[in-house]
User: What shape does this take?
Amino acid sequence: MATIFTIPGSLRSGSSNHNILKFLGTLVPDGINYTIYDSLATIPPFDPGLDNDTTPQPVAELHRLITNADAIIICTPEYAFGVPGQLKNALDWLVSSGTLVDKPVALITASSSGEYAHPSLLRTLGALSANVIEEACLLVPFIRARIQDGVLDDELKEQLESAFESLLKAL
Ligand SMILES: Cc1cc2nc3c(=O)[nH]c(=O)nc-3n(C[C@H](O)[C@H](O)[C@H](O)COP(=O)(O)O)c2cc1C
Assistant: This one.
């Protein structure tokens, strides 16, 4: 069974990015396993000195989950004109392992603006040699106005449906 593994960049309870990933979960066809990662906060600060056979357990588990996945969705806000620290930290742990190499990845940046984090993450994913599926990537500004009580507006749903379709084609 194919697996899509998704990583929310926000740790906030009630996060818009979590809501987007939950919505995408409703689009998953039969025969595909869909998981939302809920352990980003357990990843320790990146230490290149430990990035070997002493890899911390949460990092080893993240490697395993990504290795076993057929496609990845990263869905994140921007903080202080940059990538949320906890997400960048996790990605730094993935550099030497090569777990993202050639892996189909969709990047969704849903934020007030997101104009800095989105291209920055695309560069990082390039450094990780991920197979970024351009048609599956989306920058969604003004996100707080587009989700009310956890419900996405219709235009956002359509944009996400189209992006998700492109990711499924890449599977
Ligand atoms: C400390 C902080 C800094 C922020 N900085 C930015 C920013 O630089 N650019 C931006 O687009 N949004 C920024 N935001 C707004 C977030 O994009 C917004 O709160 C978004 O809803 C967070 O995503 P979430 O709902 O998934 O938690 C910031 C929010 C916080 C709390």
User: Anything to note?
Assistant: Residues 2-170 form a domain with the Rossmann fold fold (CATH 3.40.50.360). The first helix runs from residue 16 to 25.
